[in-house]
Design a protein that fits this description.
8-stranded parallel beta barrel; TIM Barrel; binds flavin mononucleotide; alpha/beta; 15 strands
Length: 366
């Protein structure tokens, strides 16, 4: 009998062919007006033997963008592009959730409507942080993030509405559900952290207040498309994008997980940034989250087949997501199951460009 990792799993209303998830990965290859392309459909369809694909971070609005050529989900044309991707993945037997995304303060004015300021929990600028935008000469490249403005009450409501519309657009385009991006130093992570969030209103201060924005968005999106189609990604103890160490980190993420449990969401996806040489999630926190969250947990960050099987055997993960191994191995599930050698990913072609390093990684040849 093959390991559970390779066996089907029921995720809310849908059935997954195995418990291997393709992690969300920004590849910056969208076309004009951030419309998904036919090449993107090929890329995702190649990887459709994953039990579940979670798409690259997909901005919910123009203001939500922090990188060039990330595909959006806020225009009819973008929905048309995503519909092609969904058809290709579904035809190949796969399932896909869209990661819906607002970058918060990690953006540059060249990406913002009317060259405006990015928006975050406060007007504090992240230090030593870059995004991918146009430099002063108008050339694409890594540029320092621009001075943000603090989101006011109207902004909170607008962003909630944008997430709801994005979720409706995504499901209308054929996605099986959405993952709200609460990880990696972007909007919701900035609100969750007790150092970056210095707000004085009901969205700052106490743990309950710092979790409020994300939970309200989860509620609004769940009301619109169903909790069983709504997942959430978090990165406890993450440091990407100038997120500082937070003395209230464990208490915050335990509270948040407990609240998410009450809502019966599709899954809680926990990303460990240790794979990028950043601090890992402290030992003991994932079992604590498991204690308060009885739904589906996806773990991600530095997994191989053995670690993935162990996590499932221990009961701390129901599904395991793979990032970089999926970039380089379109047939990753078969390779993991058979113990075949993996292709190595080429970091030079992670972001931007065309087929090279995207759709040209070879399938395993016996
Ligand atoms: C090229 C690249 C792009 C990524 N883009 C995203 C993203 O859009 N959203 C997200 O939540 N994480 C993103 N990540 C993080 C991955 O989802 C994953 O958490 C990370 O690569 C660790 O998993 P791994 O060790 O299996 O690669 C990205 C990672 C890479 C390498």
């Amino acid at each position: 009998m093959n390991h559970k990792l390779f066996q089907p799993f029921k995720l809310g209303a849908i059935s997954l062919n195995n418990r291997i998830v393709m992690a969300p990965m920004t590849r910056c290859r969208a076309g004009e007006d951030d419309i998904p392309t036919a090449l993107m459909a090929t890329y995702y369809a190649q990887r459709a033997t994953a039990g579940l694909i979670i798409t690259e971070g997909t901005p919910v609005s123009l203001k939500a963008r922090g990188y060039l050529w990330t595909p959006g989900i806020y225009t009819q044309q973008q929905m048309g592009g995503w519909a092609q991707i969904c058809n290709a993945v579904h035809q190949a037997g796969g399932k896909l959730f869209m990661q819906i995304w607002h970058v918060g303060r990690i953006s540059h004015s060249s990406l913002q409507p009317d060259a405006g300021a990015p928006e975050g929990p406060t007007d504090e600028l992240s230090s030593d942080t870059v995004c991918f935008a146009f430099d002063d000469e108008g050339n694409p490249g890594n540029v320092s993030t621009s001075q943000p403005i603090a989101i006011d009450g109207d902004g909170i409501q607008r962003i909630k509405d944008e997430f709801v519309q994005a979720a409706l657009n995504a499901t209308q385009a054929g996605l099986d559900g959405v993952e709200i991006h609460g990880a990696n130093g972007y909007l919701f992570d900035e609100f969750l952290n007790s150092i970056t969030n210095t707000r004085q209103d009901e969205y700052g201060g106490s743990i309950e207040n710092r979790c409020r924005f994300l939970l309200e968005v989860v509620d609004a999106v769940s009301d619109a498309i169903g909790a069983e189609r709504t997942g959430v990604r978090i990165s406890p103890n993450g440091r990407f994008n100038d997120i500082p160490e937070d003395p209230e980190m464990e208490a915050t993420f335990t509270f948040l997980s407990h609240e998410l449990n009450k809502r019966g969401i599709a899954f809680l996806h926990i990303n460990d940034q240790g794979t990028f040489g950043l601090p890992s999630i402290p030992e003991g926190l994932i079992p604590k989250i498991r204690d308060v969250f009885s739904g589906t947990i996806i773990l991600c960050g530095g997994y191989d087949a053995e670690r993935a099987k162990n996590a499932i055997d221990q009961g701390i993960a129901d599904l395991v997501a793979f990032g970089m191994p999926f970039i380089a191995n379109p047939d990753l599930p078969a390779r993991l199951e058979q113990g075949w050698l993996l292709n190595e990913p080429d970091r030079e072609t992670f972001y931007g460009g065309a087929e090279q390093g995207y759709t040209d990684y070879p399938y395993y040849q016996k």
